[in-house]
Structure formats: C-alpha cells, structure tokens
Amino acid sequence: MSNSVLRIFSYLPNPRVWKALIAAEYLGVTVEVIGDKPKHLGNWLWDFDARELSEQERTDESPHARASRRGFSGTLFKTDAFLRTQPYGTVPAAFSPDGSVGVFESNSILRAVARSVEGSGGLYGGSPMHASRVDSFLDATLVFGREAQVYLLGMDDMTQQLHERMAGAFQFYLEGIERALEHNAHIAGDVLTIADIAFACDVSQFLRERLMNKGLETLSLPMVSAGLELAYPRAFAHLLELIERPEFSQHLDAYTQHFRNSA
Ligand SMILES: N[C@@H](CCC(=O)N[C@@H](CS)C(=O)NCC(=O)O)C(=O)O
Fold first, then answer.
1. What is the residue extent of each domain of the chain?
2. Mutation test of ligand 1: which of 40, 66, 70, 106 has the most ligand atoms closer than 8 Å to its C-beta?
3. Which residue's CA lies nearest to atom 19 of ligand 1?
4. What's the confidence (pLDDT) of residue 166?
5. pLDDT tens digits for 45-70?
C-alpha cells in the first residue's frame, strides 16, 4: 500500500494537477500521479488502475469506448468503475488511496490534499469561517478557469463574442483579486492559502494566451491578458512572487518564463 494521500490520473504536464502538488509540497505529503502527454491519453484506459492500452484494445467496439467531451477529440476509453467515481469523466481525476472515493475538479482535488493533514497546515484558513472565505475565492477561480478553458480551446476558431465574454470574465475575476490584495498580503488574508495556489496555476494557464494568439491576430483582436501588468499590478506582483517560491517554481518555472521575462 503506498503512503500517498491521493492518486491522480491526468494528462501531464497539467497546471490543474500542479495545484495539488504544490499543496502537497507545503504539507510534506505524497500525491501519486499517473498519466501521459495530452496526445497520448487517448491511448489509456481511464480507471483507478489506469494503464496504456494495446492497439488491439483501442477499438470503437471496446466496452470502455466513450466520445470525448471537452479538450479531447475522438474516442476515449473510460471504465464503468471510473465513471462511477468520476461522474463527469474528466481529468484530473483523483482517488482515495483505496480507489473507493473519487474527487474531481482540480480545486476540490486541491482541497482534498489540504484536508489530508490535521489543520491543513494553515493552507485552508484558521477557522470554518476563514475556510469558507478561501472557498469563495476557489469558486471565483473556477468560474474564471471555465471561461478560460472555453476561450483557449476556441482560439483557432475565435469569434468576437467569445473574446468579449472572456474579456468580461477576466476583468471581473482580476478586479476582485486586485481589491483583495489592497488589504492583505495574500488573497484570502495575511497568509498563504490554497486560494493563492489555485490563482497562480489558473492565471498562469490563462497566460498561455500570449503564446497562442494567432486566432486573435486574424480578427485583429487584442489579447485579453494584455492589460494584466498595468491594470492589476498587485495581482501580477503577487503572481510573480508566488512563482518565485520553490514549492511553486518546481512546477511553474519553465511554464511561466514567457511572461516573467518581460516583467
Ligand atoms: N474544471 C475542471 C476541468 C477538467 C476538464 O474539463 N478536463 C477535460 C480536459 S481539459 C477532460 O477531462 N475531458 C474529458 C473528455 O473530453 O471526455 C478542473 O479544473 O478539473
């Protein structure tokens, strides 16, 4: 039996998985990660005991064959047991060490890691009320993350409407973060919490916009993230400061070089 607090199956690397790994690093616990490059995950059996399938096993007649929904195309292979514990069938997919409990949504996987340690090492707030404030930011981050997912996946077929919607979501989310940081050194208060971890990973992922903006150029649209540094200076400085920390930088360093170089 491994001594990890959680098993995660996902495509890798994945900033949504880094949320859990950064928290695990702070708490000194182990999270087991299983997966493969995004383009290879279609060759895998999605299961608690995930494994790469042989070519003969990867047919549309397979009992595990399912149409992909978001972020993947074509057929994916998910077991019934996987869908019982992961009803939305998405990755990252996390499991309790014995596989009986599924946890999905990267922010909730992050919460599960924090809760694996008595008192969460302070990462989940010092009281039930403070934990709820942390949750408030995690929810706001998920709403932003969902808009960002649709926008980035739609980059090659960009429309004015999609761009406008993303611009509105970006402004709404960042305004709240900027305001929160006017009063505190961290997002949910004085000390680091999982709200900061989710923020750093999701905003870093969104800033891939700057590396994949061809779809915007064809429509002469500006990058949504272009104003980040000037319009939200506290949020941007906080992002840079978080990424400097070793617990963050071991995952985010190379991934974020492109916007830190110009800072
Ligand atoms: N908000 C979710 C996003 C998860 C998600 O949408 N995952 C997609 C890949 S980016 C997926 O697993 N798709 C499976 C499918 O297409 O069936 C999170 O943070 O975990």
1. 6-118, 125-260
2. 70
3. 106
4. 98
5. 999 999 999 999 999 999 999 999 99
Ligand 1 closest atom vs CA 105: 20
pLDDT in tens, 94-133: 999 999 999 999 999 999 999 999 999 999 999 999 999 9
Give the residue, by CA position, lying nearest to ligand 1 atom 9: 71
Which 3 state secondary structure label does DSSP give 70? coil
Ligand 1 nearest atom to the CA of residue 11, by list position: 9
Q: Are 9 and 21 in contact (CB under 8 A)?
A: no
* H or E stretch covering 9: strand 6-11
Nearest CA residue ID for atom 12, ligand 1:
90
Alpha-carbon distance of 125 to 258, in angstroms, equals 32
CA atoms within 13 A on the CB side of 125: 17
Helix (H, G, I), strand (E, B) or coil at 153: helix
What residue ranges in 41-152 does DSSP mark as E strands? 44-46, 51-52, 65-67, 75-78, 93-95, 102-104
Class of the domain covering 125-260: mainly alpha
CB 205 within 8 A of CB 107: no
Helix (H) or strand (E) holding 109: helix 106-115
DSSP, res 80:
H
pLDDT attached to residue 116: 98
CATH of domain 6-118: 3.40.30.10
Å from CA of 263 to ligand 1 middle: 31
Cβ 82 vs Cβ 89: under 8 Å:
yes
Decide: 95 and 101 in contact? Cβ < 8 Å: yes
Q: For residue range 228-252, what is the model confidence (pLDDT) as tens digits?
A: 999 999 999 999 999 999 999 999 9
**DSSP 3-state of 130:** helix
